[in-house]
């Protein structure tokens, strides 16, 4: 089984980490599209074209059998197109985990942190409208402009990052939010800072594990035998904070190099 994953930068590594805990006997190819990061403030056409090119690259160079779009922003823009264009590929996208948040929340006050592009996306809006009809919930949405850049710099717990998050989370604290959806794959990297502000009891919903389960189920359906070693290759298109990569993937062996896409 050859699995391709991509994101604008380090964020998708949180998904890779979850996958690496359970997937065996596979090769993983991860693209950090740092030359074009962050995706959150790019226009739709630009993100669309990058994701299309990256998928072609993964197919041509590595012959992937499965693709994980390890980015909420990209998923909301490109997933439909990728499924139409590559019907032979197993394709898994990532969406803010609002349903698991509804199941976990005790008071129905739920915070959603994502990029503004994800929050404005049609897919997200439709999901929210549907869920609001079915459940008594109050959703507090917050676009975290600039947070991805802080994380890419390795500033997951600096004063600046704390203050940015505090500014966004204060209204949630005030509104007794008990569950927060991490609607961008970068945000699990600031879980600790979020807990420092919201308190230990806040439940943080990150969908990495669910994606890993789905990937294994679909791979096994396609004949994959989940045994043996995992080979991980990390490629990046611009610059990368390799210290952060080592910290995030500390439990895994991997190779890392620059590539042109
Ligand atoms: N990790 C991303 C996401 O899940 C991309 C964020 C960005 O590049 O702005 O949305």
How would you explain this protein's 3D organization?
The chain is α/β, with parallel strands linked by helices and 261 residues long. It has eleven helices and ten strands. The strands form two sheets. Strands 4-3-1-2-9-10 form a six-stranded parallel beta sheet, with helices on both faces. The protein has a four-stranded parallel beta sheet with strand order 6-5-7-8. Helix 1 crosses helix 10, helix 2 crosses helix 3 and helix 8 crosses helix 9. The model has no long low-confidence stretch (mean pLDDT 97). It binds D-glutamic acid. The site of D-glutamic acid has 16 residues, from helix 3.
- Give a list of the ligands: D-glutamic acid
> How many distinct helices?
11
- Portion of residues in beta strands equals 15-25%
Order of helix and strand elements from N to C terminus: EHEHEHEHEHHEHHEHEHEHE
Q: Supply the helix-strand structural class.
A: alpha/beta
- Quick one: overall form? globular
Low-confidence stretches: none
Give the fraction of residues assigned to helices.
Answer: 40-55%
Assembly type: single chain
Distance between the termini: 23 Å
Counting DSSP E segments of at least 2 residues, the number of strands comes to: 10
How is the biggest beta sheet arranged?
A: 6 strands, parallel
**Main β-sheet, spatial strand arrangement:** 4-3-1-2-9-10
Cα gyration radius (Å): 18 Å
């Amino acid at each position: 089984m050859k699995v391709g994953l991509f994101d604008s930068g380090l964020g998708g590594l949180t998904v890779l980490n979850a996958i690496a805990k359970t997937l065996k006997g596979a090769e993983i190819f991860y693209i950090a599209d740092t030359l074009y990061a962050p995706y959150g403030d790019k226009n739709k056409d630009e993100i669309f074209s990058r994701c299309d090119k990256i998928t072609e690259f993964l197919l041509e160079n590595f012959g992937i059998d499965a693709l994980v779009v390890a980015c909420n922003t990209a998923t909301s823009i490109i997933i439909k197109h990728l499924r139409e264009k590559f019907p032979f590929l197993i394709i898994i996208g990532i969406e803010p985990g609002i349903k698991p948040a509804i199941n976990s929340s005790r008071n129905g006050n739920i915070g959603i942190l994502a990029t503004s592009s994800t929050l404005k996306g049609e897919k997200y809006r439709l999901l929210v409208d549907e869920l609001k009809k079915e459940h008594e919930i109050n959703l507090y949405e917050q676009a975290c402009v600039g947070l991805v850049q802080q994380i890419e710099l390795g500033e997951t717990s600096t004063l600046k990052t704390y203050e940015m998050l505090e500014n966004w989370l204060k209204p949630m604290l005030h509104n007794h939010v008990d569950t927060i959806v991490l609607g961008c794959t970068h945000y699990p990297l600031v879980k600790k800072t979020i807990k420092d502000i919201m308190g230990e009891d806040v439940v943080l919903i990150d969908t990495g594990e669910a994606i890993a389960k789905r990937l294994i189920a679909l791979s096994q359906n396609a004949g994959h035998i989940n045994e043996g070693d995992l080979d991980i290759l990390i490629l990046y298109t611009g610059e990368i904070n390799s210290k952060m990569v080592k910290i995030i993937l500390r439990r895994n062996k991997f190779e890392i190099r620059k590539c042109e896409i």
